[in-house]
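OP here, attaching both records as promised.
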Amino acid sequence: MRLVVDTSVIVKAIRNFNGASAALIQEAIRERVVLLVSTPLWLEYESALQRPEHWVWPGFGAADADRFLDVLANIATPIEIRFRWRGILPDPDDEMVLETAINGGADFLVTFNQRDFAPATTALGLEICRPDAILARLKERP
């Protein structure tokens, strides 16, 4: 299962180690899913995870954020953006996520912001899911 994960899901993974977002990263580490990432999306991940307001656990700091990014870098599959998809989504900042999904042949785009990504489901046939829905699908698989 090839996934593109919105930045909000990545941030949630470090804010709640016991939640669905963190569990989804664990599934990628176990190679049950493939995380796809482009350079612009990776830069967004880095920017978000290096902001102290996301370090909510006692003792979690910049070094931990860097280690988490190192883990992501080791498990993510890089995607080259060959075709840009612009003007489909209401928020232009979401377009890098969409472009990664389309260019990478993702099975699912994983986000908490399903409403803003909804135009992509109609226009491009891309399936949008929350992390818990992906985990439920994985439980159904052998």
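Record two, same layout:
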Amino acid sequence: MKTKSIKVSEIEKNWWIADAKNQTLGRLASKIAQILRGKHKVNFSPHMDMGDCVVVVNAEKVRVTGKKESDKIYFRHTGYPGGGKEVNLSHLRRTKPERIIENAVKGMIPHNRLGARIMKHLKVYAGMDHPHIAQDPQVLEI
């Protein structure tokens, strides 16, 4: 018995569109991470970038449960001494709503070079408009 490994030239990339309106953040991010990683494909290989591209629209209308709107804190560091910055979910929703979904998905994919390459296939937009209509994306049911 021989195990057949897929070649890079045999990988097929599809485009998906997900509407985040009234979707729970974690469940949406989990489904998006699976599609980006390629786990929905029969010939999934964990060491290769074989996932599809995902376009997320209406990121500003994503839903969270409980008191996360006021209590959830996002932390980042500028790299300088004393450069720690904290911002809560409601402030991030007002200023950069795309980052909410990007941060949730980023935590669910590998934290290495492969994960960085996979994240480039995620396109998030605050409103309904996006420039990827030419790719004819399939609707992602969640």
